[in-house]
Amino acid sequence: DGGITQSPKYLFRKEGQNVTLSCEQNLNHDAMYWYRQDPGQGLRLIYYSQIVNDFQKGDIAEGYSVSREKKESFPLTVTSAQKNPTAFYLCASSATLYYGYTFGSGTRLTVV
Amino acid sequence: DAKTTQPPSMDCAEGRAANLPCNHSTISGNEYVYWYRQIHSQGPQYIIHGLKNNETNEMASLIITEDRKSSTLILPHATLRDTAVYYCIVRAQNSGGSNYKLTFGKGTLLTVNP
């Protein structure tokens, strides 16, 4: 079945360490997105990519980096510069920027 | 994106219809109304979307008022598994700038009670 896979589901890291969250899709979608969700809050856009080798900052890109070397993959790195990295991270994809989104099941990152 | 207003929470009895309202009084002519839901600790799931006409699929019905300033998502026979946060979003289908974004507010927490 086609879908988006995020791994791992739970991730623990020490403060000051960079960590990379995986997102893979087999839907042949061009566009991919990373959102962050804090408890009781809506989703906030971190980065998005319209096509391979291209990506743009979203609303809260500071302290994060991404790459889009393959159509299927859009990994997110949470760097030590991100002041409050503990959150629920969601990856999504869509056929183009203007179609509906398919979401992964999320990665819950805890930094201690 | 036009701003949407939803009640923070609603309750519904199992087996009854759940009617979730959304106000989008500043919606533009080319903006669609989308509904997603998020079950606790999972990614959001697409439910339905529409422009002007009422829409129905296997999950729900979407009723949009004639002036398009508000809409209602209807789950005809709510089950316990429908307990989730429901997000109403408006977005242009094809336009430039940042209108591609799906902007998720806090949504409505629907609790279906046995």
Cα(first) to Cα(last) distance of chain B is 37 Å
Oligomer: heterodimer
Category by helix and strand content of chain A: mainly beta
Poorly predicted spans of chain B:
none
Give me the secondary-structure topology.
The complex is a heterodimer of chains A (112) and B (114).
Chain A: E1 4-7, E2 10-13, E3 19-25, E4 31-37, E5 43-51, E6 54-57, E7 64-66, E8 76-78, E9 87-94, E10 102-103, E11 107-111
Parallel strand pairs in A: 2-11
Antiparallel strand pairs in A: 1-3, 3-8, 4-5, 4-9, 5-6, 7-8, 9-10, 9-11
Chain B: E1 9-13, E2 18-23, E3 31-38, E4 45-50, E5 55-56, E6 61-64, E7 70-75, E8 84-92, E9 108-113
Parallel strand pairs in B: 1-9
Antiparallel strand pairs in B: 2-7, 3-4, 3-8, 5-6, 6-7, 8-9
Question: Overview of this structure, please?
Answer:
The complex is a heterodimer of chains A (112) and B (114). Chain A has 112 residues and is mainly beta. Helices cover 0% and strands 50% of the residues of chain A. Chain A is built from no helices and eleven strands. Chain A is globular. The N and C termini of chain A lie far apart (36 Å). The model of chain A has no long low-confidence stretch (mean pLDDT 92). Helix content of chain B is 0%, strand content 46%. Chain B has strands at 9-13, 18-23, 31-38, 45-50, 55-56, 61-64, 70-75, 84-92, 108-113. Chain B has a five-stranded mixed beta sheet with strand order 1-9-8-3-4, with no helix packed on it. In chain B, a hairpin with a 4-residue loop joins strand 5 and strand 6 (61-64). Chain B starts with 8 loop residues before the first strand and ends with a strand. Chain A binds chain B through residues 4, 6, 35, 40-43, 45, 48, 58, 88, 90, 92, 97-98, 100-106, 108, and chain B through 34, 36, 41-46, 49, 87, 92-95, 100-107.
